[in-house]
């Protein structure tokens, strides 16, 4: 055989030998290296050289956190209720050698372990507890499964119950119970609201009655005070009139009578019921001699200062006679013909 062909064959064998010796591990994985069938080391991500035909790659272990779906299964609870349960398990391989050589088919082992412990945990609880205590179920499952898988170099990070499916009849009974409970709470809230409304309304009526009574009391007090002051003013005015009469005699009486007489004549003049008004003769004389009133005032003032100078009834406008018929005159109203 020519020397050139031998050299080429040796070169090809050397290249093949080199290719068999080079191993590149991807990120997130660890390769187990077996030498003559025995596990020797775990190849981390990166470039590695092995001895061809002596060393070989045993298993490629995924070191990332993984999710294992636990298929649905039927579980009998403590009170003999059949429920369907689905779950998921989150785990991560920490030791590639143990995960590869301490257990056969790691995924199937974790699934079987989780399934059996799920039956154990939920089988020891009532139906109401399984529906309301999912966190407790998850915690108990996590503790049990993590302890069981620690010799395999696996860390169980989370165990979650996805769904719990009670039987149809139990679901209907629970729905009716929930409806009845909600109706009960609604009636309780409505009764409490009506009670609070009645209390507030009664409080308002009570406060209104109190304020009304206080207002009436204040009004009565003010009215009594006003009447008292009016009575005091009337008594004071009466006293002043009495003092004037005592000092000036008939002159003061004639002044007050003439004043009231004039007011009455003014009211007759403004009456809308008649075009002609009949006045007594004394009234016509009073209209013609209004200056007599001033004389009466002067006499009253003079009698108060220097004593009475005339006898009662001597001067001033004469009083109307007490008996007999009073003469009268017909005086047309101002601005009207007659």
Question: In terms of topology, how is this protein built?
Answer:
Layout: H1 3-21, E1 22-25, E2 29-35, E3 38-43, E4 46-49, E5 55-62, E6 66-76, E7 82-93, H2 96-101, H3 106-123, H4 127-132, H5 134-149, E8 154-165, H6 168-248, H7 250-269, E9 276-280, H8 281-288, H9 291-306, E10 328-332
Helix pairs in contact: 3-5, 6-7, 7-9
Describe this structure in words.
With 338 residues, this protein is of the alpha+beta class. The chain has nine helices and ten strands. Strands 3-2-5 form a three-stranded antiparallel beta sheet. A three-stranded antiparallel beta sheet has the order 6-7-8. Strands 1-4 form a two-stranded antiparallel ribbon. β2 and β3 (38-43) form a beta hairpin. α7 packs antiparallel against α9. The model is unreliable at 303-338 (pLDDT under 50).
List keywords for this structure.
338 residues; alpha+beta; 3-stranded antiparallel beta sheet; 9 helices; 56% helix; 22% strand; disordered C terminus
Oligomeric state of the chains in view: single chain
- The percentage helix is 55-70%
- Return the string of H and E elements: HEEEEEEEHHHHEHHEHHE
Overall outline: rod-shaped
Which strands sit side by side, in order, in the main sheet?
A: 3-2-5
The portion of residues forming beta strands comes to 15-25%
Spatial separation of the terminal alpha carbons: 178 Å
The tally of beta strands, per DSSP, is 10
């Amino acid at each position: 055989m020519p020397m050139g062909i031998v050299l080429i064959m040796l070169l090809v064998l050397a290249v093949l030998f080199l290719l068999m010796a080079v191993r590149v591990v991807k990120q997130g994985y660890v390769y187990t290296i077996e030498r003559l069938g025995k596990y020797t080391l775990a190849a981390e991500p990166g470039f590695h050289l092995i001895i061809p035909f002596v060393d070989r790659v045993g298993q490629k272990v995924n070191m990332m956190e993984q999710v294992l779906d636990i298929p649905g299964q039927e579980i009998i609870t403590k009170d003999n209720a059949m429920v369907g349960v689905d779950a998921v398990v989150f785990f991560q391989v920490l030791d590639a050698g143990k995960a590869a050589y301490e257990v056969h088919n790691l995924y199937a082992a974790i699934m079987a372990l989780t399934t059996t412990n799920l039956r154990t945990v939920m089988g020891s609880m009532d139906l109401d507890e399984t529906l309301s205590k999912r966190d407790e179920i998850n915690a108990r499952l996590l503790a049990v499964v993590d302890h069981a898988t620690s010799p395999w170099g696996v860390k169980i990070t989370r165990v979650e119950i996805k769904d719990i499916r009670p039987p149809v009849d139990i679901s209907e009974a629970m729905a009716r119970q929930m409806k009845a409970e909600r109706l009960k709470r609604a009636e309780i809230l409505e009764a409490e609201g009506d009670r609070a409304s009645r209390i507030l309304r009664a409080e308002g009526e009570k406060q209104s009655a109190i304020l009304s009574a206080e207002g009436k009391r204040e009004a009565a007090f003010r009215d009594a005070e006003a009447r008292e002051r009016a009575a005091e003013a009337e008594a004071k005015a009466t006293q002043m009139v009495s003092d004037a009469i005592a000092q000036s005699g008939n002159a003061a009486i004639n002044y007050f009578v003439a004043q009231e007489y004039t007011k009455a004549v003014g009211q007759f003049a403004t009456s809308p019921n008649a075009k002609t008004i009949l006045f007594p003769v004394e009234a016509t004389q009073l209209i013609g001699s209004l200056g007599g009133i001033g004389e009466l005032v002067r006499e009253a003032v003079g009698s108060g200062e220097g004593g009475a100078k005339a006898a009662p009834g001597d001067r001033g406008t004469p009083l109307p006679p007490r008996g007999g018929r009073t003469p009268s005159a017909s005086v047309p109203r101002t601005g009207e013909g007659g």
